[in-house]
Structures are given as C-alpha cells and as structure tokens.
Q: What sequence folds into this?
C-alpha cells in the first residue's frame, strides 16, 4: 500500500519524495523513480485521488495553445514578425495572421508592427519542437499603442485576473486605468500617471500575497486607501474566493478536460474589458 | 523603446509624476553599506531602490609611471556584468562601461581629493596603486552616480594592507592607515526630458531622455568634472539649472556617505 509523505497543498521542492508505492500516479511537475513519486518543480502539492501534481509557484512562462499573451516585436522576418513572449522560446506572427488587410508582396512591414512594439496576441499553435505561432486576429487582440509595460510572475496571472476577471476589473475601476494582462505575465496599462502607479502597486501586492487568503479584501482596502475613493465589489465574497482557490488548482489540468473555469475564459473577459476601454476613447 | 512609450513617459513627467511615482527631483531610497568584502582593502555597496552597485578598492605597491615618478596611481574600472541586466553582454568593455569608469575616475582625480604624492613609497621605484572596481549587481539606470558614490565610499572605507619586512604585502592584515581624502566628490547626473530636469533616472527613463549632464561637485559646491551625454542640446540656462540641481542632490548624497563612515 502506498504512502503519501507530504500533505495536500503543502509546498514541495525539486527532488523531494512525495509518495512511496505504486498506488499514486505522477502528473505535472512530478515523476516516478522506482517506487517513489518525486517533485521536479517548486510548487504547491495537489493530490486528487491517485493523481499527484505540483502547481508551480515560480519559473518561466511556457506557451500553450489558446493563451492570450502580450509579446514584443524582436525582429522583422521575410514573412512576418518574431515576437519576444517572455518565454524560453520566441514566437512567429505570420503575415496572414497579422492583419485583416491584404499585405502586398514587398510591403513595408513596419507599418503593421515595428520593432519594440507590443501586441496582445493569441497562441495558435505550439509544436513539439516548441515553435510557437501567434495571431492578432480575434476579439481583443491588437497592437498596443502607448501605455507602459510591467512584468509579473506568469504563475500569478490567474490571481491578478481573478475569477471571471474580477480582480483586474476592480483595479481598473478603482484607478481608471486601461489594463491588459497577458497570460505570459506581461501586463500593459495606461491611465493618469498617479493612478498607474497605484495600479502597479496593487498588482505587485496581488502577486506577493496571492497565497494568503482574503486577498480581494486586502486589495480593495489598499485601493481605497490609495485612491481615497470607495471601491464597489462585483458580487464577490470570501466564499467564492475559496471556490476560486480550488479552481485554480484545476488549472494545470487543462489536458484532462477540466474546462469549467480556467484562465482562458477569464482572460478573454479581460480582453473584452480592454476593448470596451478602447471604444470609450 | 518605441516613440509611443517615450511619449507616455514624457506626458507623465509633464504632469509631475514619474513611472515609479516619484517626483521629478526625488531620489530612490538610498542605502550604503561599507566594508563587507574581506578580499578588498575597501568596499561599498550602494542601493538606489532595487538597483545595486558594488565597488572595491585594491591596493598594491608598483613602479610609478616614468613621467610621474613621485605620484601614486589611481585606476577606476567598471564592468557591466550580464547578470545585472539582460541587455549587457559579456566580452570587451562596452562604450557605456568605459564612459562610466572614466567619468567616475575624472570626478575623483580632478577633485584633487587624493594627494598622489602621499602615495609615494620610494621615488621612481615604488608607489601605491589604488585600483577601484565598480560593478553593478542589479542595473536600473543612474550607473555613474551609483558607481561614483560606491567608489568614494569604498575609498573612505579602505585601509592600507600591512607591508612585510621583505617589502611584499600581507593582504590578510590591514593597518589603520586610511587613504587621506580631502574632499568627497559626488557625481550627479541630471537628465533633460522635454524641458524638464530629473535626477536618478531608471533604465526605462534613460531610454527616453534627450540629454544628460553628469556634474561632480565638492563639499563647498565647486564643480570638478562634467560629462554630457545624449543627442539633445543644452542651453546655458539649462546648464545653470542642472548644476544647481546637481549640487543640491550631491549634498544629500554626501550626507549619506558621511553617515556610514
């Protein structure tokens, strides 16, 4: 009979033996060595029945299909653009996915995306060799004009966005900033200078305190204190927060078909907000 | 950095707020620590917010240059480590590294704070050489000022090593003898962005500036070194404002150095 050496939701480090015996199955962030299940990432342990997984707390963003991310143009190629997507791999934006316009042969590609430009893009494909294709055709996908960019830990992005975008929309409403959060941890924002600073401190706070419960209330309090205005919450309470915690654990499970509440949909909401903001201009 | 984001920084500055929420002439939180490197004769670590630079002083007895047989030697070297910033590459020193080292060197040398004659051991044969190494550990702009501050703090912290009977040096034992500094030269870089002047720029802000002027000043407000950078031009009026700002800021920074020594 197998034995679990670490409790569920505890933090594990690479090399740590999590369980002994063949009763447990290693999933993401773990592997089997003889009879042992061992962690290979720093993260929180998640045990669901027999399946053992670690939810990573650190590390670089790894692109996955359908992620909405923010990338920076690193190079202009013959047939598209090379994007830096804050990942170990670069991504290619082919001409056909760059614009709804017809781009003639030999056209000046910098008119569409120039070096150092940022854009909200969607990952259309990741090959087994980690070649990443991206597209800007889709709702909320566009080149980002002006504004500023900050970087956050990509593993904290689900918390920055919150359930159905509740956290980021609270920051948006409190600071009147336009914010777009990419799932690769790149965040674009634009607003009045003082409010931008408040929004960034709020995001840093979320990032740092994401593992402590009651986060929404603390961020709300912080925003109210910083802006001097009351913040109205969008039908959201602690109970839901707990629910969200559990959902977040499921996020790594994308491959298992657990699609009821994962980051993609929340981020999609988020980009819709951004679109609305643009239209208001 | 593209034009739109530069414009974003400028617009914020015009409203009196910088990207990190500081006022135009406000410094990041300054922290100075000295004497933490056991292998150097003197060392200092300067933090401006999260940006961090260390400097170390090494001392040796060597043959003087032929044209200055009675003078000790002062050398400043800066190395921009790739670990401090993804933009830095390993290899031969970059233009930025050379400029940083030269401006810091010029500030200390031209302040005449160190009497090089005092560093003479035997005329034409043996003089002390002071080698100051400046290394950023976490780069976020304003390197000349942080490096200059660290270099001076390290000099103040330095103690001569013990000279053995055979004339070689015992680096494990240090005497109480210090480098006599008559003055504390402090470099301050003032940046001009769209007719506004800022001090202590972050790396992001440095990408958006029109011009910069590094002014090294002494305790009494005298200027001992200048370095202009950036493509923009400066009027006489601009320079007057920048000098005033630099001298005020230098006073504040000098206070910090005096506190730790």
A:
């Amino acid at each position: 009979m197998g034995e679990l050496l670490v409790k569920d939701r505890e933090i594990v480090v690479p090399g740590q033996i999590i369980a002994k015996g063949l009763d447990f199955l290693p999933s993401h962030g773990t592997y089997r060595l003889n009879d042992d299940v061992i962690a290979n990432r720093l993260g929180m342990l998640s045990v669901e029945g027999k399946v053992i997984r670690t939810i990573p707390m650190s590390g670089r963003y790894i692109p996955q299909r359908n992620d909405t991310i923010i990338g920076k143009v690193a190079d202009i190629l013959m047939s598209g653009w090379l994007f830096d997507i804050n990942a170990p791999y670069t991504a290619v934006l082919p001409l056909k996915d760059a614009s709804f316009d017809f781009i003639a042969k030999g056209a000046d590609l910098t008119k569409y995306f120039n070096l150092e430009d940022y854009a909200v893009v969607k990952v259309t494909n990741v090959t087994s060799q980690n070649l990443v294709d991206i597209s800007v055709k889709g709702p909320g996908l566009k080149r980002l004009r002006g504004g500023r960019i900050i970087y956050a830990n990509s593993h904290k992005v689900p918390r920055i966005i919150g359930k159905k975008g509740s956290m980021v929309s609270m920051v948006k409403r409190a600071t009147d900033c336009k914010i777009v959060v990419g799932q690769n941890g790149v965040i674009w924002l634009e607003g009045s200078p003082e409010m931008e600073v408040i929004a960034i401190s709020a995001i840093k706070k979320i990032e740092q305190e994401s593992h402590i419960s009651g986060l929404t209330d603390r961020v709300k309090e912080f925003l109210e204190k910083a802006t001097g205005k009351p913040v109205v919450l969008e039908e959201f309470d602690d109970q839901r927060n707990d629910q969200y915690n559990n959902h977040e654990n499921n996020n790594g499970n994308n491959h298992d078909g657990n699609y009821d509440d994962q980051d993609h949909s929340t981020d999609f909401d988020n980009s819709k907000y951004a679109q609305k903001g643009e239209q208001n201009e | 950095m593209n034009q739109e984001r530069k414009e974003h920084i400028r617009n914020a500055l015009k409203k009196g707020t910088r990207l990190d929420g500081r006022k135009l002439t406000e410094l990041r939180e300054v922290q100075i620590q000295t004497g933490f490197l056991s292998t150097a004769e003197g060392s200092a670590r300067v933090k401006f917010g999260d940006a961090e630079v260390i400097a170390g002083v090494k001392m040796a007895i060597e043959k003087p240059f032929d044209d200055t047989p009675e003078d000790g030697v002062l050398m400043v070297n800066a190395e921009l480590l790739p670990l401090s910033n993804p933009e830095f590459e390993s290899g031969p020193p970059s233009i930025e590294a050379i400029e940083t080292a030269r401006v810091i060197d010029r500030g200390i040398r031209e302040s005449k704070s160190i009497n090089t004659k005092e560093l003479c051991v035997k005329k034409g044969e043996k003089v002390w050489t002071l080698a100051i190494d400046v290394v950023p550990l976490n780069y976020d702009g304003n390197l000349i000022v942080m490096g200059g501050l660290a270099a001076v703090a390290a000099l103040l912290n330095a103690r001569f090593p013990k000279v053995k009977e055979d004339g070689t040096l015992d680096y494990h034992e240090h005497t109480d003898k210090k480098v006599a500094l008559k003055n504390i030269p402090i470099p301050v870089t003032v940046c001009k962005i769209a007719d506004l002047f800022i001090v202590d720029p972050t790396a992001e802000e440095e990408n958006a500036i029109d011009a910069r002027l590094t002014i090294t000043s002494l305790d009494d407000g005298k200027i001992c070194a200048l370095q202009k950078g950036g493509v923009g031009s400066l009027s006489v009026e601009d320079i007057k404002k920048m000098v005033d700002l630099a001298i005020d800021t230098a006073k504040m920074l000098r206070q910090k150095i005096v506190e730790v020594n």
Q: What stands out?
A: The radius of gyration of chain B is 19 Å. The domain at 3-260 of chain B is CATH 3.30.230.70 (Ribosomal Protein S5; domain 2). Chain B touches chain A at residues 1-2, 4-5, 7-9, 11-12, 15-21 (CB under 8 Å). The longest strand of chain B covers residues 126-138.
